[in-house]
Design brief:
mainly alpha; 3 helices
C-alpha cells in the first residue's frame, strides 16, 4: 500500500512547525521543580525553614522564563530566516 504524500502534507507541515515548541512547557516545569527540590535539600541540610526553598523557587521561575523566551525567540528567528530563502 502506497501512502499519498498530499493526503498528509498539511498535517506533517503543521507538526513540523509545532515540534520545536512542544518541549518548552516541560523544560519550564522541570527547571522550577529542580530548583524547588534543591532549595528543600538546602533547607534540610542547614536546618532552616523554607528560606532556600522560596529563594530557589523564585530563581527557578526566573531562569525558566528566561530560557522559554530565549528559546522561542531563537525559533522565530530561524523560522523568519528560512522563510526569506
Amino acid at each position: 500500500m502506497k501512502i499519498d504524500p498530499d493526503k498528509y502534507g498539511s498535517f506533517n507541515k503543521t507538526l513540523s512547525e509545532a515540534a520545536p515548541y512542544m518541549g518548552l512547557g516541560l523544560q519550564l516545569a522541570a527547571t522550577i521543580v529542580l530548583m524547588v527540590l534543591l532549595g528543600d535539600w538546602l533547607d534540610g541540610k542547614l536546618g532552616l525553614k523554607y528560606i532556600f526553598t522560596i529563594i530557589c523557587a523564585i530563581l527557578g521561575i526566573g531562569a525558566g522564563m528566561y530560557n522559554l523566551i530565549r528559546t522561542a525567540n531563537n525559533i522565530e528567528k530561524r523560522k523568519a530566516k528560512n522563510d526569506k530563502k
